[in-house]
Amino acid sequence: MSGLKKMMLLMLIMCFCSQGYLHAQKYRLQDGKKAEKIKFELLNNLIIVPLEVNGVALSFVLDSGVNKPILFNLADQDSILLNNVSEVSINGLGEGEAINALRSHGNNFRLGAIKNLSQELYVVMDAAINFSPSLGIPVHGIIGFDLFRDFVVEIDYSKQFLKFHDPKTYQYKKRANRESFDISLVRNKAYLNAKVGLENDEMVAVKMLLDTGSSDAIWLFENDSIVLPRNHYDDFLGKGLSGDVYGKRTRISHIQIGDFVLNNAQASFPNMSVFDAIADLGDRNGTLGGALLKRFNIIFDYQNKKISLKKNRNFKLPFYYNTSGINLQHAGVRYVSERILNSTEKTTYGNVQIMLAGATRLSLVPEIIVSGIRAGSPAYSSGLKEGDVILAVNGKRIHRYKLQEILQMLNKNKDKRVKILVTRSNRDLLFSFILKDLFK
Asked: Could you tell me which residues come within 8 angstroms of residue 257 by beta carbon, excluding any fewer than 6 positions away?
């Protein structure tokens, strides 16, 4: 999955959950602690946390839209012991068939001072399900409901930390500009009521899944009241366990949650065929994902069916759009040579010491490739092709930057010219195009 694709870690339908195992699995704080604070990394609007599984250190996405933990991308691990394994099939979002997986129970999970000695999990062996290339770091799985069930979960998106509170001792503290809302829990997933304003600014009441594992802002399901705005474009929305997800990207005038109003919000309308694996969507109208949730510091309280929101420094950030049309991802490593202009190296021949000025340094760096291009986009019209290896953007050698920083270079300013140096078939090629407003 590429970097510019709004990578979706999508809601899974786990059809084989045993009630016996469910009640046996509990996360607990060790040593009488009342809370545990965990730092996380925020990549592409996703929360990445360190997690041990049977003593092996891994990285997981905290995904409130997933029922049971899913393991994948274990190729870089020497070994991991899984207990009590059986084969099952899993259905998820996407235009494909159910996939085979392994189900395992009785596993030891540890997150800081938090432990669960009997965690059920699923293992997907399909190498194509791998989020690491799009994020730029190894990610081995997703985890959600079990942690939200057992703690009051505080997410500070601005300072990038999680705090897991013991529900028995947690006390709410009054904070200015914080609002609390009732949520409903359906099949172990949380839903929040909101209102959206479409093209005519008419407010439409919606019931939205809260999904920290989605990097998009808003998904909306089209019906008689929720109508796709005229200005939109076709795009790849993400990848589910059962295949790719396509739909329309657009912009809505605003979304309102209580007294909080976000204007000119990014929204996507997925093709509803991708939900064929879900027996009943009920009265759900869409999803609130990481690109919207990161604008708040949030307290999830599943036991009392409440959520608290307080806007943070991300609140007024403009919503992200892929204006270039380029999708990027890591694709291995390559060597680069750099001349060190302001340094000298010493070498000795017998008793003679020679100073070598302007030495050359050879470094192994990640290789970033174009993994997809949206038809009709500025990048497509310029002649860029899938498989091109990116060397520089606007004169900046990209191996010095993280993947998310490169994406910002490519998409930040509309009406600005972007110059991209690539290598293709052992030839260096320079392409140039102007970023355009997608909704003019």
From this structure: 179, 181, 192, 194, 195, 309
